[in-house]
Amino acid sequence: MKQRTRFGLWPLIAGFSVLLSGCTLEVLNPGAILDEDLNTPSLMPIVVAGSSAELNDIMDGYSFTGGRLTDELSGTGSYFSTGQYRLGRFTRDDSEGFWEQTHEAAWASGEAWARLQTVLESAASTSSDAARLWYLMGTAHQRLGENFCDVVYDKGGLQPRTASFDSAIIAFNQAKAIGAAANSDKYISAGWGGLAQAHVGLGDWSSAVAAAGNVATDYLIEAIYHQAANSNQVYNETWGRAEVGVWATPVQRQYNPTVVNYKSTGDPRVPYTVCGEWTDTNRPPDVTLGVTPTGTCTGQGSGATQGAGGLTAHHRQDKYTERGSNVPTISGTEMRLIEAENAVR
After folding, report:
1. Contact between 74 and 246 (Cβ < 8 Å)
2. How far apart are CA 35 and CA 205, in angstroms?
3. Each residue of 226-254: pLDDT tens digit?
4. Which CATH architecture has domain 91-223?
5. Start and end residues for every CATH 1.25.40 domain found in the chain
């Protein structure tokens, strides 16, 4: 072994150096970036974008998994989780990824804010990037409160989910205040809308309605997705595949124009397309007779007409119609819904 190292390796190194002699040693992509190299004002929008990416990494997952666990989507595929969710089985293991990533999104926003204060100093309090950061932080806290019974902050003990709503209120107030200082109506409205959501979580309906009234009906702010880099999971599993649909959901049962006589066009809030119909028109149908394509979905996404599990016709959701469809986090229509729910309490 020593002889091989002594006489066999050096010729290889020598040969490699000869190859390099005709090349430049300039490195355009050095790989890991030193932490202190980020302490540059011009890079702060990128730091904030990184916090946005942390949140975007999980928001479509809430829509996809939450939809299957409720009546918003029906699992029509062959995934193991789909079979479990049909039986109402959602374990700690199923939730860990959501727990971890949402905590990480909240933590990342806090770390980014500390850096903005260091780099921008007093200007951080009048920066629209900082207002965006607080909106992201508030949204992460809000999702923790909405989806988990207990939370943990800073390696401490378990706290009730109300701690997340309290943290969200602090963050959304900051988004609103800094948004005002930065003359950013977008983040002022995001702050008000987030406050309305958090107060609903705490059961404080009067405060929720008061906050909601400051958000215009056409307001919308979203988690950002992309055709390639970070695509929308709901689209992927309903258009790209037929793993979920709206067959036998309230959407299909109640808002189908063929069964709701007083609404000839269905409900525009819950758009869907019938890609395939059961060949057997009886209900329940004889599934062994298969599905007849409607032709409507031909050339769109996968063009599937039958659920991937082979047991259902594919009724495709049309809320997210592109791989890069964004996911709403706060909207004016939600604010009107909060007001309506309060009115009928």
Report:
1. yes
2. 44
3. 998 889 999 999 999 999 999 888 888 77
4. Alpha Horseshoe (1.25)
5. 91-223
